[in-house]
Amino acid sequence: MRTTAERSAIWWVRRDFRVHDNPVITRAQKNHLTVVPVVIADDTSWFTGNDPRSRIFQESLARFIEEVRKYGGSVLVRAGEPIQELADILASTQSSVVYSLRPDDDKSKNLFRRAKSKFQLLPIKDESRRYSKCPDSLPTGNFRYFFNAWQSIPLGESNPDATKSIVFRSLQPDKKSIAIANKPDSLSILKRDFFATRGLLTTILWRKIGST
């Protein structure tokens, strides 16, 4: 019989918000019964600022949270130093291992090396090429070399049925949690110092992304 730590795994979500056909989820669920998605705002993420990528990141995160809820789970969103936050989450959720997509940039690689010295972190390499090409992603034909290279990529087929077995853990937000909300006029982050919950969010103090 598996212990609590063996039954639960942390999925450290950084920039890949795929729920379907995600290699990290696939690997985690081979060894664990439940998965806890975790997003941490740090200096390597596009969490705040005026960069257009920040808004895309926030909107993707909001959709991701809703998608996880469809499976009966919840996403832990924290702000702070990732290694400290992950260590705290591992302890509070009684999990033993962190799974995450293997990074490509040097700054994130260094972060992963430091994290692996503190706890069990398993970087998962995404070897799938199916997301390099989709039916409506035809590039311009002006650059024949790149057009031909794109044409040579086989069009992969998604397998949404593989996601039906995902079991996300449902957790109550704690004092360190950040609540994400998608407002009609702008995407906002609820200030975590004023975070409160009683079934639904009761705090109404908002700070717009990118505002001073």
Structural class: alpha/beta
Kindly, what is the distance between the CA atoms of the first and last residues, rounded to a whole number of angstroms? Answer: 52 Å
CATH class: Alpha Beta
Fraction in beta strands: 15-25%
What would you give as the CATH superfamily? HUPs
Main sheet attributes: strand count, strand direction, barrel closure: 5 strands, parallel
The helical percent reads 25-40%
Which strand order does the major sheet show? 3-2-1-4-5
CATH topology: Rossmann fold
Order of helices and strands: HEHEHEHEHEHEEEEE
What is the number of strand segments? 10
Shape designation: globular
Q: Count the domains.
A: 1
Number of helices: 6
Weakly predicted, low-confidence segments: 129-136, 156-164, 179-212
Give average pLDDT, whole number. 68
CATH architecture: 3-Layer(aba) Sandwich
Radius of gyration: 19 Å
Q: How would you describe the overall organization of this protein?
A:
The protein is an alpha/beta fold. It has a single domain, classed as Rossmann fold (3-Layer(aba) Sandwich). It contains six helices and ten strands; from the N terminus they run αβαβαβαβαβαβββββ. The strands form three sheets. A five-stranded parallel β-sheet has the order 3-2-1-4-5, sandwiched between helices. A hairpin with a 1-residue loop joins strand 8 (197-198) and strand 9. The longest helix has 19 residues, at 52-70. It starts with a helix and ends with a strand. 21% of the residues are buried.
